[in-house]
Structures are given as structure tokens and as C-alpha cells.
Amino acid sequence: MKGVLPYNNFEHSPYGMTYFGHPTGRGCDGRLVIDFIALDLGLPLVPAYFSKGKDFNQGANFAVIGSTALKLDYFRQHNITNVPPVDTSISVQLGWFDQFKPSICNTTEACKAYFSKSLFIFGEFGGNDYTFVLSAGKSISEVKSYVPVVIDTIKGAAESLLKQGAMNIVLPGNLPTGCIPIILTIYASPNKTDYDHLGCLKHYNTIGSYHNIKLKKVVVQLQTKYPKAKISYADYYKPVIHFLQQPKRFGFTNGAPLRTCCGGGGPYNYNLTASCGQPGVSACSYPSTYINWDGIHLTEAAYRIIATGWLKGPYAHPPILSGYHK
């Protein structure tokens, strides 16, 4: 295992068990937010850019599990070495996008016309950056010092797409860091006052909330600068909090909202040395009754609700389907 995230497990069962019946490279038991958005728009599931023999005329997915906003060199320069072995940061993904463009449009004007009718889901970025900084032993205040750099990177990348003709961009925020089983396990505290009424680590949640405040400001800035475009802030934070506040209302009836479905035991069923996808680690029988799938990522059931909230509200501002440029 390299760093904090178990990179090599996603190609093993029980990943993909709920919908596909086999692993697909998704960090989930089934479909992701982007899958549900595609289906709602009448599109096929968006193929990964590096898939062989796929049709990309209706979309391409450049996302990589464990990817960061910042380049890996940036982390290494700051003595943060618990990072992925390969750089798949924003700049790298934009490079892939540049390589991809000639397959769908041949001129600057043709690309602008094509992108004006396209939907760009840009992220979520930042969560992995902060996890890697935390894993280097940095304090929460030190982690927060990286937020402006991450936000500037996201802003610059989003603006590059707008300059190329993008008219519909969705910028997802961060999840509540202190409610994620991997964080709850690694940074467990004997002090009960470190936890909120939901059982989340209060101070760790301030990382995600600080990032999201900054990102919302970027959305306003970009929308002001590019008034003809539609730029949405998509919320991951509020829905997860809502799930924890009223789990049964959303169908999460397992009785332990912070426990993960697939894991190797412990208070949150998350174990760094026995994580989902490793030999001997099993999944729960009914993933749809859980919020969290593997200690890091959410279940298909959670992603479905979030996707609906992004498409129609209340979890995106403005919702994706309101005033969508076609």
C-alpha cells in the first residue's frame, strides 16, 4: 500500500457488486454521481479516457482515484511524501483533455461550439490533497494553509475550460472530512469534546467547510467574469450531514451511520491493514443501507441521492438542470 489510500484494491471484489456485478475501477459498490447524471441526461455511462475501444462522442471521464489538485512535485517540495506514485493532478488531467480534443473537434471555433453544448463536472478536487498533508503529520491549521493554493489551482483550471468555450461547469466541493471513517479511525481521539453530536471529528470538518467557503467565492468570481456561462457549486458536504442527521429518512437503516459497509473491522469497520478489496475482507449484505462503502468513498445509494440533488436541487447552486446550455 502506498500512502494513505489503498490504490490497488479497486480492481478486486466486492467493488462493483451492487450494479455491475464485478469491479470496474470505481471506488464504490456500484455507480457514481457522474453515472447518475449521465443517465438522467439520457446518455450512456461515461467511459474512462484510457478505456480501449470506447465511444467518447457522448463524454469522457478523466478522473483518477487518489488524484490531487496540486502537482506531486509540490507535495515533495514541502516534504510530503505519502502521495501516489504517479501524478494524476489537475494539470495532468487537463493535458489528457488537450490530447483528447482532436478526436471530437478540429479547429478552435469547432471546439468552442462543441464545448458550449457540453457539461463539465470538474472534481471533486482537494480532498486527497488535504488527506496527504494530514498523513505527513501536519496540524489542521497547517492543512488549511494549503487550501488557498488548492483553490487557486481549481480556479485556474476551470477558467482555462471557460476560455475554450465551456458554458456549463460544475465545481463540486469537499465532503465533511471529520465524518469519513478513514479519518475517524486514524485520528480517533480519547476526548469526547473533539466529536460533534453526529460523532464526527469537529476540527477535521473545518477543513472541508473552509475549502467549500473559498470555492463558493470562486464560483461567484467566475460567474461574474463569464456571465454567459453557467457555473454551479455542487455540494457534497450538506448531503452527507443530512444523511447522518436523518439516516432512516434516506434509507440508511443499518443502525450505525458512520460505519462502512466493506471493511476489516474496528469501531467504524475500517482497518488500514485490511481494507475493502483485500483478501478476507467482506462487504455487508445490503450496501444500500449504508452511507459509506469502503471507509473513503460513499455507496451507490448515497451517490444516487447526491446526484439528484445536484441535478434538481437542493445540493447544487444553481442546479444542473436549471438553464442548462444545450
UniProtKB/TrEMBL annotation:
It comes from the Eukaryota. It holds the Pfam family Lipase_GDSL. The keyword Cell inner membrane does not apply. SUPFAM superfamilies: SGNH hydrolase. The keyword Thylakoid does not apply. One of its GO terms (molecular function) is hydrolase activity, acting on ester bonds. Keywords: Glycoprotein, Hydrolase, Signal. InterPro entries: GDSL, SGNH_hydro_sf, SGNH_plant_lipase-like. Belongs to the 'GDSL' lipolytic enzyme family. This is GDSL esterase/lipase.
